[in-house]
Write a structure and sequence with these properties.
- Strand 8, helix 10 (about 230-245) and strand 9 form a beta-alpha-beta unit.
- The strands form three sheets. A five-stranded parallel sheet has the order 4-1-5-8-9, with helices on both faces. It has a two-stranded antiparallel sheet with strand order 2-3.
- It is α/β, with parallel strands linked by helices.
- The protein has twelve helices and nine strands.
- It has helices spanning about 10-15, 25-40, 40-50, 80-90, 105-115, 120-125, 145-150, 160-180, 190-205, 230-245, 255-260, 275-295; strands at about 55-60, 65, 70, 95-100, 130-135, 140-145, 185, 210-215, 250.
- The protein is globular, with a radius of gyration of 20 Å.
- It has one domain (about 25-140, about 185-295): Rossmann fold (3-Layer(aba) Sandwich).
- Helix 3 (about 40-50) packs across helix 6.
């Protein structure tokens, strides 16, 4: 691995684009300098040496759910753990996944985790040897109301009114999606691209040119989201974004589609069977393995 010696501000200047003011480079620079100042050089060296090779992974529920539901995040059948196992066997060293994920997370949530969660920005990131961006699948899903309205439901009082509103939403949303194909995405494509770019620039500001991998949004189905109106465009956008940002995006379209056709997925239509986790993990590991060998 190349030594990460330059300051975050110096590294960040390489990714500055005059035409991309919406990326808020100055804000990222301020955040990177604060993290850099808060984690001493001794601490950075210690964090990088602890526990072997570390893969910082941002994800949604695909990173901790299988064909029957939620499992331990350390379950070896999950695709991030498959990646770790494959890299460990190839490199003959311990590989550990540092997972930051939650059900329903979009690229925006991953950005918030990177910049607001002290465990992520002060522990996981300084010791990361690679980053997996396993978000974007939720961003593409069809929505009937804006995110800020949906996410405000848990704050409705009283409890009885909150339950009525949630029940009405859950009963009506699939019907509206089926009739319209979805009035909007969960997160607009422009916002998805913007937050993914911020993450990449922030990681490079702190950790230099460590490998960063992404994957295309997963095909899906089921009663909750009975429309794939935005899926093909989302897949194309991820491949285009990754080429622009110099991030290798693994295309999982055929792997997941074949598994769904064989009936191996979770009955909810959203989550994968174990064979899919294995195949996706192997594909990601093959790409990451090449990246790691090129940088040794």
């Amino acid at each position: 691995m190349a030594q990460q010696c330059s300051s975050p501000l110096t590294r960040l200047s390489r990714f500055r684009r005059v035409e991309s003011s919406f990326l808020e480079i100055d804000r990222i620079a301020q955040w990177a300098l604060l993290v850099w100042a808060g984690v001493s050089e001794v601490s950075r060296s210690r964090l990088r040496c602890e526990g072997g090779f570390r893969i910082l992974t941002f994800g949604d529920s695909l990173t901790f759910q299988g064909p029957q539901g939620i499992v331990s995040a350390r379950d070896g059948r999950l695709f991030p753990q498959v990646v770790a196992q494959q890299i460990s066997e190839a490199c003959q060293r311990d590989v550990i996944v540092d997972l930051s994920a939650r059900e329903g997370w979009t690229a925006r949530d991953a950005w918030w985790a990177l910049t607001k969660d002290p465990i992520v920005f002060s522990e996981y990131l300084p010791r990361a040897d690679a980053v997996l961006l396993c978000v974007g699948g939720m961003d593409q899903l069809p929505a009937v109301i804006p995110t800020y309205l949906r996410d405000s439901m848990p704050y409705i009082r009283s409890g009885s009114l909150r339950r009525k509103v949630r029940r009405a939403y859950r009963n009506s949303a699939p019907f509206i999606v089926a009739k319209t194909g979805g009035l909007m995405r969960q997160l607009p494509q422009q916002a998805t691209d913007r937050y993914l770019t911020r993450i990449v620039q922030a990681v490079r500001a702190i950790r230099g040119d460590i490998p960063i991998l992404a994957m295309t949004p997963s095909p899906y189905g089921g009663d909750t989201y009975p429309s794939q109106k935005f899926h093909l465009a989302a897949r194309a956008a991820m491949l285009s974004w990754s080429a622009t940002e110099g991030v290798h995006a693994v295309d999982i379209e055929n792997i997941v589609s074949q598994s769904r056709e064989l009936g191996e997925s979770n009955p909810d239509g959203m989550h994968w069977g174990w064979a899919t986790h294995q195949a996706v993990g192997q594909e990601l590991a093959a790409v990451l393995g090449r990246e790691v060998r090129c940088r040794d």
